[in-house]
Design brief:
heterodimer; A: alpha+beta; five-stranded mixed beta sheet; 29 strands; about 25% strand; B: alpha+beta; DNA polymerase, domain 1; 5 helices; about 30% helix
């Protein structure tokens, strides 16, 4: 069976030979036009005059468009209709598109775009969280607050209290392929769009709105992205819409790609947070209560900020049973790029908050940080298989549909929420934790990584070294799987079996390198009992599978795998029924395996079976559909079951720090991660490795710096430091936990895209441990813990160092 | 406009280019060799690495005119004419040295240049050599492993799976 095999990425051969096509590689007509945006150069202002004569006269320019020239909606927001494609009288961050240049070459468009004369009447810009909070500049009417129990009294009466505030920076996605789109006008006014997007349906929807056509007139195709990481969930809208508008206006194919500087200047990033905490512990280190305040830098437009900030709240417990908790989340509107989805979608920020609390408490109580964590874990899983559950169908879309129902920015309807029994351990949002495996997983990791011995050795080594100190730290992950906007947890697929037995596979998920297409193809091959070569993977296409959700929230394999399974099983059942009758056998005697169809004592090749079914007039094409069961979530109350299940993992990282410069290295990382019964262990391990390094990068070297005018100064890899090959851990041991999903997911596998990202938190904690070796007080690191931050922290705790 | 002529993957290629045309642009737009990717436009990410007279060069940092008369090798010319992958390409496939694939052509070309000068590089040497090639997906582990394997070395020594 193809499932569970460590097969290479489906496009590996195309990638190593340079034949894999990204949007900018697709052959286009010779007269294709190229687009570039003219950008705002101030953070907040009214536009008083726009002189574009020089732009129009620039070589190769065919057209220049402003907001006034747009034929229909001027909006590329995935949520609140607050993000014009082109600035409409005012600008809200440096880098906001103001006008659109259409020219004969990419370079001509970019050169011309710099010749625009924009006059501004500047307004005060909100460039810090303090400024935004003071101005009450926010999304939603006030802070969201989730509570369980009485946190304040629990903390006040606790034996030990830890309290602090720290900054947690954002993160640039740095997908290697920048944003790109191409639109080709069709004969009937329709539009064919190729887009580097995680969300073809959203692109289709926004393009249709922008050119005044129903969605059926817009077809979006996405074969692959050169990396996404959340950065292509909504940020590709502007390019696709611009291309479609220009293509409609000129009748020619239009293409747009952001150069890296433009990409980093225009597009949103991970949300930066400031987290304040106050937590009470008993003498044994058991948490009694905690209060968190999240100040969330959402940037200038709403985008997906509400669900991102929600998910941060939903991961404020991470792996720990917290008897009393209060989380207050302020979604602040600032004059920066509009922060957006990024791998983990707020979960990492919430998790860093509670891991910081645990780290701080362990330091204060003088307990081993691992032991303190283990004492606070949720209770272990009681039964390895969950009872089946019917899909929860209570959701009715809000009739006004003020947002965008296809995206995570849509408004959520209140749900009927089941209250768990009193003896069940629940999260801060009252969801029972029934699949908790971190006790066993932690024990195994501590053993395989030789944690106790190494911790003792490091203490000895540190005692003999003044300048360099080593540190070691553990961090667990419990990550909730499902879109928190319940209605997005659905997927469709389209499968054809041709008369020669070859299979055409299509589903709503997009490929961004994660190996989704291969994993889903393995599912299809397994359902038909055929070899993978018979299954043709095809580009995501809104004309084949409609109304898809973004490939996001780690849900790609879970949702699309199930939808493809349903489609394959429909066809298989039809084939089985026909063949059983034809060969006078019971249907139960028909089996699909080893590229053959076995019908009792008869046996046919799959090809022959397909041909027989075709001539017997059996339909060999089917759609498939899946909706995740058991979900019920009310985001305003903060109550319910937003997640189908949790994915788990743990990491131990060892680092060394130089007190003179703050420079540091990751010496070793050990990871044990839960992918359930993996659909493809090689691809899943690749996800875990990449996610760890990306997570560690976020918390160590990746620093976004805006100057006092709101200009992003880290707008290229020259100034923004993602991990390079020499930054990965010297020793890197990654393994998958041997277990199955307790819930009935696709072949009992678990989602793997986002959860391992948070394993990188262990690197940040290890740096804290190392810095702590220089002095007695708690290092209180901010994130990212750059060399400069470490240097400062060393001086905070050991001023004479 | 200037006329340039160079040998690309063993075949003569020529064209009229502006003086400012970059080699990466010439390869992609004039010759249709889109396997050479442009990731950062500023000669840092390495997705556009090709060989110029046998040396690894970031093709976005060289003018097409400078390559006049040179021997250029790109990712499209690495496999045998019958499609058989070369040892580095095969190793990247077998050892999962790629995810989204956008950095892969540059990685393969850099690895080829490394192995030409240093047929049995240590893990440390590989990591240092690849400093100029960014990958955002893999965490580099399987890339290093693939290059170790391509050079005929035991990859079990490269940490664990």
């Amino acid at each position: 069976m193809a499932v569970a095999k460590p097969l290479p990425h489906d496009a590996a051969r195309l990638h190593v030979t340079g034949q894999a096509r990204y949007v900018d590689d697709i052959p286009s007509p010779r007269d294709t036009l190229h687009l570039a945006f003219g950008l705002s150069t101030v953070a907040h202002a009214d536009i008083t005059a726009l002189d574009l004569d020089a732009v129009r006269q620039s070589d190769g320019v065919v057209a220049v468009l402003t907001a006034d020239d747009l034929p229909f909606d001027n909006d590329v927001s995935p949520s609140a209709h607050d993000e014009p494609l082109l600035a409409n009288g005012s600008v809200h961050h440096i880098g906001q598109p103001v006008f659109l240049v259409v020219a004969t070459s990419h370079r001509a468009a970019r050169v011309a775009a710099r010749k625009g004369q924009i006059s501004y009447a500047e307004r005060p810009a909100l460039l810090t969280l303090e400024d935004a909070l003071a101005a009450d500049s926010r999304f939603e009417d006030g802070p969201r607050i989730y509570t369980k129990g009485d946190a304040d009294s629990a903390i006040t009466s606790a034996a030990h209290v830890v309290e602090d505030t720290f900054d947690l920076g954002g993160q640039e996605h740095f997908y290697l392929e920048g944003q790109a789109a191409m639109a080709q006008p069709q004969e009937d006014g329709g539009m064919l769009v190729n887009s580097s997007t995680q969300h073809p349906t959203e692109i289709q929807h926004k393009v249709a709105e922008a050119i005044g056509l129903p969605m059926h007139a817009v077809r979006v195709e996405t074969r692959r992205m050169g990396g996404g990481f959340g950065g292509k969930e909504s940020q590709g809208n502007a390019l696709a819409v611009a291309c479609a508008i220009a293509a409609r206006a000129t009748g020619r194919t239009c293409k747009m790609r952001y150069d890296r500087d433009d990409d980093m200047t225009i597009t949103g990033k991970r949300h930066a947070f400031r987290i304040s905490y106050r937590a009470g512990f008993d003498a044994e280190g058991r948490i009694q209560g905690v209060e968190f305040t999240h100040l969330v830098d959402c940037g200038w437009a709403q985008d997906l900020s509400l669900p991102v900030a929600d998910r941060a709240m939903l991961h404020s417990d991470n792996a720990y049973l917290i008897p009393a908790i209060r989380i207050e989340s302020h979604r602040l509107k600032t004059n920066r790029q509009s922060a957006t989805a990024y791998r983990g979608f707020g979960g990492p920020q919430g998790m860093v908050g509670i891991e910081r609390v645990m780290d701080h408490a362990a330091h204060k109580l003088g307990l081993d940080p691992v032991e303190l964590r283990q004492r606070n874990y949720y209770a272990p899983m009681q039964s390895a298989t969950a009872p089946a559950g019917a899909p929860h169908d209570s959701f009715v879309p809000a009739p006004d549909a003020a947002g965008d129902l296809a995206s995570r920015g849509a408004p959520a309807a209140p749900a009927d929420v089941t209250t768990p029994a009193a003896d069940v351990q629940t999260t801060p949002y009252h969801m029972p934790v029934e699949d908790f495996i971190l006790h066993e997983l932690t024990a195994e990791l501590l053993d395989t990584s030789d944690y106790a011995t190494r911790k003792a050795d490091i203490a000895t080594w540190n005692a003999g070294n003044d300048r360099f100190k080593r540190g070691i730290a553990f961090s667990p992950v419990k990550f909730g799987i499902s879109f928190t906007l319940t209605h997005l947890n659905q997927a469709g697929a389209l499968v054809h079996v041709y008369q020669d037995g070859s299979v055409h596979l299509n589903h709503g998920g997009t490929e961004m390198g994660q190996g989704l297409f291969q994993k889903v193809a393995q599912v299809a091959a397994s359902r038909f009992g055929i070899s993978l070569e018979k299954v043709k993977i095809t580009a995501t296409d809104t004309a084949k599978v409609p109304n898809t959700s973004a490939t996001a929230a780690s849900s790609g394999s879970d949702l699309n795998g199930m939808a493809v399974k349903a489609a394959c099983d429909t066809i298989r059942d039809r084939m089985a029924a026909y063949l059983a009758e034809r060969y006078q056998q019971p249907v139960s005697a028909v089996r699909f395996e080893g590229d053959r169809v076995i019908i009792g004592s008869e046996e046919l090749s799959f090809e022959a079976a397909a041909m027989e079914c075709y001539t017997g007039r059996i339909s060999l094409s089917s759609t498939g559909y899946y909706k995740t069961p058991k979900l019920e979530w009310d985001r305003i109350q903060g109550k319910g079951r937003p997640f189908f299940y949790f994915a788990y993992g743990a990491a131990i990282t060892e680092v060394v720090v130089d007190r003179l410069t703050g420079e540091n290295r990751i010496l070793r990382a050990d990871v044990l991660h839960d992918a359930g019964a993996s659909l493809n262990p090689a691809l899943d391990i690749g996800q875990v490795e990449g996610a760890y390094v990306q997570g560690a990068g976020w918390l160590t070297t990746e620093e976004l710096v805006w100057d006092q005018t709101g200009n992003l100064r880290t707008h290229a890899p020259s100034t923004y430091k993602i991990p390079a090959c020499s930054d990965r851990p010297d020793v890197f041991n990654v393994a998958l936990w041997n277990g199955e999903n307790r819930e009935d997911s696709i072949y009992r596998s678990k989602a793997v895209g986002e959860p391992p990202f948070m394993l990188g938190i262990s690197a940040w904690l290890a740096l804290s441990d190392a810095v702590g070796a220089y002095g007695g007080s708690y290092p209180a690191l901010n994130a990212p813990a750059t060399s400069e931050e470490i240097w400062r922290a060393v001086r905070r705790i050991a001023p004479e160092a | 406009m200037v006329k340039v002529t160079m040998t690309v993957n063993g075949r003569t290629a020529s064209g009229e280019v502006e003086g400012r045309t970059l080699l990466s642009g010439f390869l992609r737009e004039e010759l249709g060799l889109t396997g050479t990717h442009v990731g950062c436009d500023t000669s840092q990410c390495g997705a556009c690495v090709v060989h110029v007279d046998g040396k690894a060069v970031k093709s976005c940092t060289m003018l097409a005119a400078e390559a006049d008369g040179a021997e250029i090798a790109t990712i499209e010319g690495q496999a045998a004419p019958d499609g058989t992958l070369n040892v580095i390409q095969q190793a990247f496939q077998d050892h999962h040295g790629l995810q989204c694939g956008f950095c892969t052509p540059g990685m393969v070309m850099s690895a080829a240049a490394l192995l030409k000068d240093n047929p049995k590089p240590s893990e440390q040497e590989i990591r240092e050599y690849l400093e100029g090639n960014l990958c955002r997906c893999t965490g580099y582990h399987n890339i290093v492993k693939a290059i170790m394997a391509a050079s005929g070395q035991d990859v079990s020594a490269v940490a664990a799976e």
